[in-house]
Write a structure and sequence with these properties.
Layout lengths: L2 H33 L5 H26 L3 H12 L3 H28 L5
């Protein structure tokens, strides 16, 4: 993988955890709205909506660049609609991005003719 692929994975990873947190906070706000007079659902809903849209955009970019099969792409999308799925996506994406960076470094070293890469 090249550095653009690693960047796409990193962007998706960076938005996955905040998206998961916003989803959980939205659920808490929904419960509070129904049990108390506290109503933060409109504000939290907007924040979560923006983060979800960013997740979907970055997911599509990562799918395109990383050449994921349909099963992998579907897994990352399903994780985005589960309340804590973004945390699992973050962990999987961290490993995948590290592998992409290592592959890019090894590829660059081979092109430059560095021995032992």
């Amino acid at each position: 993988m090249d550095t653009k692929t690693a960047s796409a994975l990193r962007r998706l990873r960076l938005v996955s955890a905040p998206e998961a947190v916003s989803f959980l906070l939205l659920l808490v706000c929904s419960v509070l709205k129904r049990t108390t007079e506290f109503n933060a659902v409109p504000a939290m809903g907007m924040i979560h909506g923006i983060l979800f849209i960013l997740y979907v955009i970055f997911w599509a970019d990562a799918w395109n660049r990383a050449k994921w099969n349909l099963k992998t792409a579907a897994l990352y999308f399903i994780l985005s609609v589960l309340p804590a799925g973004g945390f699992f996506a973050d962990r999987k994406l961290r490993r995948e991005a590290e592998n992409a960076v290592n592959a890019a470094i090894a590829s660059r070293a081979r092109k430059e003719g560095v021995v032992g890469a």
